[in-house]
């Protein structure tokens, strides 16, 4: 409860320092959580320690990490409430002091009375008559009543702010940290959102496309953006159109939160798989024992558990700032727990091969995009063909379901910058997904499409993909049998030529020179130099279509080079 004298005489100079101290404590706790998880828990696990003692130690370590994470969330709630108090209460005090000055000028004296106040008539300083002593009792009483209503409203506002902000630490339960009960994390998240609601942050707007998301985010204050990042990290991190660095910050918080939530308690089979997926993502983000990211490092742009095999979108470099961006869409049998490390190695090669083509640094970013349920397939071979399982890989369901999300992701990049050069590198079944994205509506807003080992794009011509055929590029290695096997399900059909694959001349696009090899050879190196497949991908990614040096242009088996880089 705030009284008149308390509000009038309060000193708020130290309030922001108090809030800053809590926010600093939050940052330190969060850093400690990451350091503990990556520098202790992961190291112990990787050391191969087994047995009952190891299991006991593992549970204890996870419990400690969970306690640190919960402490960080509670500290963030207190710091946020303190920030709000430091912002609102001085404004209310200023309103009170302004009212007191105006009352004095009008001939009203406001005096202390047991922590409250009383109003009396007094002539304004240096005045002779007029104001409240003008000889008009009714007017004087009306003036007294008006200032009483005004002062009471200001004090009531201060009490309301005090009550709602004082309630924040009151609902925080230290036992949640100590006990790490199953509902502890839910309680901490609820507290964080309650604090955000006190400051007008009550969930995200509905049904926003990437352009509207970008405009909405730009229209928020820095304080509001900070509250959204703290209170709705997974939602913000998954929203196409939000700047990459903000998505990364939100997703890292959400990733740590979900791992802490799942740790130290019994899990279902699906949750166990989710843990493995999330640990693989965290491992991919971790470098030299830290999870710090910058414009030249890895950014986590999305993750989830919509599919048992996991979801993740991760970049090397900042796609909002890089002049050129490549998006790698993988194919069949790609999962997070078992496949992310290998896919990131491919992405590293794409990044390095592209970056070396120009003297500037930071003018390329590479994105690994696994935001669809990649089909599963196993082949029994010639001896046991009955053991083959290919139902999901021959269907169009997975590609059709994932294509709108790829389109949305590209739209989000465009919402941040319209003059960047964006290419998609789609491998195997990923090219069928790219084809579905290109065929629908107005197509997908990329400058170049590169398909490697493609079984088909669900169309018989590059013209159907809403892109200049000179900006469609296909690679196929000599020993890659997958395009032929998948043609029955995914290739186009032309009456004159029969089944038509993207690398066929009849398809109408460009066929790039490819390295010798099989279905996994498109990112091979020749010693310390990129192989032909990788080199030609990089030349397209960097837009070197009419480079003054012909040796730097993409090498074609057939087709036509664009006359100028497409921006």
Automatic annotation (TrEMBL):
InterPro entries: DUF1023 (IPR010427). GO terms for molecular function: hydrolase activity. It holds the Pfam family Abhydrolase_8. Coiled coil: none annotated. Keywords: Hydrolase. It comes from Embleya hyalina. Residues 549-560 have a biased composition (Basic and acidic residues). This is Alpha/beta hydrolase. Residues 310-482 form the DUF1023 domain. Residues 514-533, 545-567 are annotated as: Disordered. Residues 521-533 have a biased composition (Polar residues).
